[in-house]
Specification:
The complex is a heterodimer of chains A (340) and B (234). Chain A is 45% helix and 19% strand. Chain A is α/β, with parallel strands linked by helices and 340 residues long. Chain A folds into 2 domains: 5-120 and 302-319, Nucleotidyltransferase, domain 5 (2-Layer Sandwich), CATH 3.30.420; 131-297, Nucleotidyltransferase, domain 5 (2-Layer Sandwich), CATH 3.30.420.40. Chain A has a 5-stranded mixed beta sheet with strand order 3-2-1-4-5, with helices on both faces. In chain A, helix 5 packs across helix 6 (182-190). The two termini of chain A are 37 Å apart. Chain B has 234 residues and is α/β, with parallel strands linked by helices. Chain B has 2 domains: 2-95 and 186-228, Nucleotidyltransferase, domain 5, CATH 3.30.420.40; 98-183, Nucleotidyltransferase, domain 5, CATH 3.30.420.40. The longest helix of chain B is centred in the first third of the chain and has 18 residues, at 68-85. Classes of the chains: A alpha/beta (340), B alpha/beta (234). The A-B interface holds A 41-42, 46, 48-49, 51-52, 54-56, 58-60, 62-63, 73, 88-89, 92-101, 103-105, 326-327, 329-330 and B 33, 35-40, 42-43, 53-54, 68-69, 72-73, 75-81, 83-86, 207-208, 211-212, 214, 218-221, 224. The structure holds zinc ion (ZN). Zinc ion is lined by residues 114, 118, 139, 273, 305 of chain A.
C-alpha cells in the first residue's frame, strides 16, 4: 500500500510547528520554533506578538519540515492544521497558510481540534492502542477525562469546573515569582521540597464525580503565601511547590483511576502539556502497575504543542472523510463534540 | 499572470492581472471575516476567468499599513501559495495601491486609513507623468497632525480611504477634494498591477523575510518600554 504523507501545521499559541508524518505514525520530521524567549519578559504569551512571530516564522518552519522529511510538495497527500481552540490571531496564520497550500496543491485540507491533536499524540509512538481508549487530558486549557471510541467520537466522563491544572500551575508559579512558563519551573523546585510540608486542600467534589476543581487549591496557595509575607515569615518555595504539585497530582491520579476502575480499562492515555510532568507520570505509572494497566504517554516533545500530533489526527480525519472546505475559520473557543 | 490579495481594511479583494491587462477582480466590503471569504473568492475568480492557480507567475499582497489581523491573513495566504507552488511573492504597500485609485489628478493625493486610537495611516503622493511619487514616509498620525502636514504643502489635495468620512471636518479649511465613493477603497487590482510591473523587472520579495508593514509596535512592547526603557539601549 502507498504511504499517506500528511503535513501538520500548529500555530495555536506560542509555538510555530510543522511536521511530516507518514500513515499517522511514522514521524519524518517535526520542527518546533518556540517563542518562549520572546514572551518571557512579559511574564506570559502576548497574543499580538505571538501572531507576528508566527507570520515571520511559518514559511521557514514548513520548509525545514519538508527538507528534513526529504519530501517535496508534490509528495504530500493532505494538509492538517489546528483551527482551534487557541489565540485567534495565532491560529489564523496557520489556517490561512494551510488553506492556501492545500488549494494550490489540490489536496485535502483537514481542520483539527487542538485537543484531538494532543490525544492523537499517543498514537504516534505506541503500537496496539485499543479503542475505546480512556484519556486524561491535562494542559493549560483543559483537564478532562475522555473516552475515545473512534475518530471524533468521544464521551466526556469528567472535566474541570473552573481552572485547568496547567492554569493552576502557571498562576502559582507567578505568585512564587518563577519565570514563565511556570509548570516546568514548579516541577524543578518541587524536586528539592517536602510534599507533606504544607497541607493544601484537595477537591474531590461529590461522591462518584469524575469532575475536577483547582481554583480552591490555587486560592489556598495564594492565601498561604500572602499570610506568610504579611507575618514576615520566610517562605520555603521548594516546600510550597512540592506540596501544591502533590495536591494536584493526588486529585488527578485519584479521579483517573476511579475512571479506570469504573470502566475496567486496560489502557490509559495521558496527553497535553502537563503530561510532560515527570512526577505526575511516575505517580500514574505506580497506580497503573498495581492494576496491570498500560499507561500511554507521548514523549515530552510530543506533549508540547507540535505539528506531528496534528498530522497524526489529520490522518485519521482523512480516513473518516472529514475534509474541511475553503471557508475553514480559526475558532478561538472551538468546542469538542461529545457523544450523548 | 499575477494573483493579488488586498485584506488590510474591511475590504476583501482579489484580482488577477495578465500581461498588463486586468482579467478580473472581486471586491467585498462586508462584516464577514477575511479568513472565511478570501480563499472562496480566489477559487471563484479563477473559475470565472478560466485560469488555474498553477498558471500564476507570482503572488502579490497588500502588506499594509492596516488591520494587523487582516494583513496577516493576506500575507500567510500569499506565502502559502507561493511556497507550495515555488513562485515569487510581492508585497505592495496598501497606501501605494490606494493612491493609484486617483492617479493622474493634479495636486497631492492623500490616502487615509482608519488606524483606530483616533489616528490614521497615511502618506502623501503626487502624480509625476504617469507615475506616483511618494513625498512622505508611511505614517500613523492624528487627524490634527495630518492637517498640519497637508497645510505645510500649501497645495490642493485629493483625499481618499476608509477614514475620509470620519475625519473630513479636520481638513475643511484646506484646499481638499474627496474622491468619489467608488474610488475610495483599497482594491486588489491596484496591488496586482503594481506588482506586475515589479515582477517584469525581476524585483520580487523574499518569501522568508516579507512581513507586514505594521508601522506600530504591539501595545505590550510599547508599555514594556515605557516601564523599563528600550531593549536596544541595554
Ligand atoms: Zn496544547
Amino acid at each position: 500500500m502507498v504511504e499517506k504523507l500528511i503535513l501538520g501545521i500548529e500555530t495555536s499559541c506560542d509555538e510555530t510547528s510543522a511536521a511530516v508524518v507518514a500513515d499517522g505514525r511514522k514521524i519524518r520530521s517535526n520542527i518546533i520554533s518556540s517563542q518562549i524567549d520572546t514572551h518571557r519578559r512579559f511574564g506570559g504569551v502576548v497574543p499580538e506578538i505571538a501572531s507576528r512571530k508566527h507570520v515571520e516564522n511559518i514559511a521557514a518552519v514548513i520548509q525545514r519540515a519538508l527538507e528534513e522529511a526529504n519530501v517535496t510538495w508534490h509528495d504530500l497527500d493532505a494538509i492538517a492544521v489546528t483551527h482551534g481552540p487557541g489565540l485567534v490571531g495565532a491560529l489564523l496564520v496557520g489556517v490561512s497558510a494551510a488553506k492556501a497550500m492545500a488549494y494550490s496543491l489540490k489536496i485535502p485540507l483537514l481542520g483539527i481540534h487542538h485537543l484531538m491533536g494532543h490525544i492523537y499524540a499517543v498514537f504516534l509512538e505506541h503500537d496496539a492502542v485499543q479503542l475505546p481508549l480512556l484519556c486524561l487530558v491535562v494542559s493549560g486549557g483543559h483537564t478532562s477525562l475522555i473516552l475515545l471510541e473512534g475518530y471524533g467520537q468521544m464521551r466526556l466522563l469528567g472535566q474541570t469546573r473552573d481552572d485547568a491544572a496547567g492554569e493552576a500551575f502557571d498562576k502559582v508559579a507567578r505568585a512564587l515569582g518563577l519565570p514563565y512558563p511556570g509548570g516546568p519551573e514548579i516541577e524543578k523546585l518541587a524536586k528539592e521540597g517536602d510534599s507533606a510540608a504544607v497541607e493544601f486542600p484537595r477537591a474531590w467534589l461529590e461522591e462518584g464525580s469524575l469532575d475536577f476543581s483547582f481554583s480552591g487549591l490555587k486560592s489556598a496557595v495564594l492565601n498561604y503565601l500572602h499570610r506568610a509575607r504579611q507575618k514576615g515569615e520566610e517562605i520555603n518555595k521548594h516546600d510550597v511547590a512540592a506540596s501544591f504539585q502533590q495536591a494536584v497530582i493526588d486529585v488527578l491520579v485519584g479521579k483517573t483511576f476511579a475512571a479506570v476502575d469504573k470502566l475496567g480499562a486496560r489502557q490509559l492515555a495521558v496527553a497535553g502539556g502537563v503530561a510532560a510532568n515527570g512526577t505526575l507520570k511516575t505517580a500514574l505509572v505506580r497506580e497503573a502497575e498495581r492494576r496491570g494497566v498500560r499507561v500511554l504517554t507521548p514523549s515530552p516533545v510530543y506533549c508540547t504543542d507540535n505539528g506531528a500530533m496534528i498530522a497524526c489526527a489529520g490522518y485519521y480525519a482523512l480516513q473518516e472523510g472529514r475534509v474541511a472546505s475553503l471557508d475553514l475559520n480559526a475558532v478561538p473557543n472551538l468546542p469538542l463534540h461529545f457523544l450523548d | 499572470m499575477i494573483l493579488a490579495l488586498e485584506t488590510a481594511t474591511t475590504v476583501a479583494s482579489v484580482a488577477v492581472v495578465e500581461e498588463g491587462k486586468l482579467r478580473g477582480e472581486f471586491f467585498l466590503n462586508t462584516t464577514k471575516t477575511h479568513s472565511q471569504l478570501l480563499m472562496p473568492l480566489v477559487d471563484q475568480l479563477l473559475r470565472f476567468i478560466g485560469r488555474d492557480i498553477t498558471e500564476m507567475q507570482g503572488f502579490a499582497v497588500a502588506i499594509g499599513p492596516g488591520s494587523f489581523t487582516g494583513l496577516r491573513i493576506g500575507l500567510a495566504t500569499v506565502k502559502g501559495m507561493a511556497q507550495a507552488l515555488g513562485k515569487p511573492v510581492l508585497g505592495v504597500p496598501t497606501l501605494d495601491g490606494l493612491a493609484h485609485n486617483v492617479s493622474g489628478v493634479s495636486g497631492l493625493i492623500c490616502p487615509v486609513l482608519d488606524a483606530r486610537k483616533n489616528e490614521v495611516y497615511t502618506a502623501v503622493y503626487e502624480s509625476v507623468g504617469n507615475k506616483l511619487k511618494r513625498l512622505t514616509d508611511y505614517m500613523a498620525l492624528s487627524p490634527r497632525q495630518l492637517r498640519e502636514k497637508l497645510g505645510s504643502f500649501d497645495r490642493p489635495v485629493t483625499l481618499l480611504g476608509d477614514a475620509v468620512e470620519r475625519y473630513q471636518e479636520y481638513f475643511a479649511d484646506l484646499n481638499v477634494r474627496v474622491a468619489f465613493q467608488a474610488n475610495r477603497w483599497p482594491r486588489a487590482a491596484q496591488i496586482a498591477c503594481l506588482a506586475e510591473k515589479r515582477l517584469q523587472k525581476g524585483d520580487v520579495d523574499d518569501l522568508y523575510m516579507l512581513a507586514p508593514l505594521y508601522i506600530r509596535r504591539s501595545e505590550a512592547e510599547i508599555r514594556w518600554e515605557e516601564k523599563y526603557g528600550s531593549l536596544q539601549q541595554k
